[in-house]
């Protein structure tokens, strides 16, 4: 994503951007960025920073080839551990294509053109968008909240360090995370209780075309507190490019 080098991000946006970076394939870019990613956590809320910091500790202590093997064995559809948001709502059906087009249109509506090699619903791309556009990005993540929570639970069952990244991401969203798969599936059907959303802002149901809105989990920091991005923008893998005005 092409952005000014002096861009500022909220604490939750920092969590999303750093977690998204860590959820990409762990190539040399990840290892080269580890010190900067750790430095960025100084501006993040305490608990998400602790979770992501634990993942960074694991990455630093793990040989790159082993880390790559761990990544590819962790994220696969066979074991219901998928990083593509619309896979959770649409599976491999025809309507998934429509959902992907819709996500690209959401990016475009905010002046961003998807240029990555992955699909536009790839979680690190959605997190990059949610970091740059917190309100619209939160709506997109909330729309896919059930899938995120099911992925978190599946990673936890697999006892992988990647669980911590999903826990950190979910902590930036409104309300508590479900504790079981049954609760996560109920979330998909009904959406979170309206009292967990910002006052006077009812949450729309989950599912293709839904647009949940408002609210956020308490982090102990003001939601509008700006934080300077502490590493060069070029260190963030490009997936979204600004369109011409």
How would you explain this protein's 3D organization?
- The protein has 245 residues and is mainly alpha-helical.
- It has a single domain (8-190, 203-242), classed as TorD-like, CATH 1.10.3480.
- The chain is built from eleven helices and four strands; from the N terminus they run βααααααβαααααββ.
- Strands 1-3 form a two-stranded antiparallel ribbon. Strands 2-4 form a two-stranded antiparallel sheet.
- α2 (28-40) packs antiparallel against α3 (46-61).
- The longest helix has 16 residues, at 46-61.
- The two termini are 16 Å apart.
- Residues 1-6 and 191-237 have low confidence and may be disordered.
Structural features:
two-stranded antiparallel sheet; 11 helices; 245 residues; two-stranded antiparallel ribbon; TorD-like; mainly alpha; 4% strand; 4 strands; 51% helix; single chain; disordered N terminus
């Amino acid at each position: 994503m092409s952005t000014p080098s002096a861009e500022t991000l909220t604490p939750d946006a920092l969590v999303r951007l750093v977690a998204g970076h860590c959820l990409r394939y762990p190539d040399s870019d990840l290892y080269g960025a580890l010190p900067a990613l750790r430095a960025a956590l100084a501006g993040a809320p305490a608990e998400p920073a602790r979770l992501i910091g634990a993942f960074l500790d694991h990455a630093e202590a793990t040989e790159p080839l082993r880390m790559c093997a761990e990544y590819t064995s962790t994220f696969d559809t066979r074991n219901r551990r998928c990083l593509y948001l619309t896979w959770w709502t649409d599976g491999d059906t025809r309507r998934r294509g429509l959902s992907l087009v819709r996500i690209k249109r959401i990016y475009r509506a905010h002046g961003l053109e998807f240029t990555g090699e992955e699909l536009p619903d790839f979680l690190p791309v959605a997190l990059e968008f949610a970091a740059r556009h917190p309100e619209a990005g939160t709506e997109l993540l909330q729309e896919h909240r059930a899938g995120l929570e099911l992925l978190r639970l599946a990673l936890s069952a697999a006892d992988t360090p990647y669980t911590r990244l999903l826990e950190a991401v979910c902590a930036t969203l409104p309300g508590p995370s479900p504790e079981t798969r049954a609760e996560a599936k109920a979330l998909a059907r009904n959406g979170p209780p309206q009292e967990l959303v910002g006052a006077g802002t009812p949450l729309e149901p989950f599912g293709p075309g839904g647009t949940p809105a408002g609210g956020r989990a308490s982090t102990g920091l003001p939601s509008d507190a700006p934080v300077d991005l502490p590493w060069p923008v070029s260190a963030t893998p490009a997936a979204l490019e600004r369109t011409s005005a």
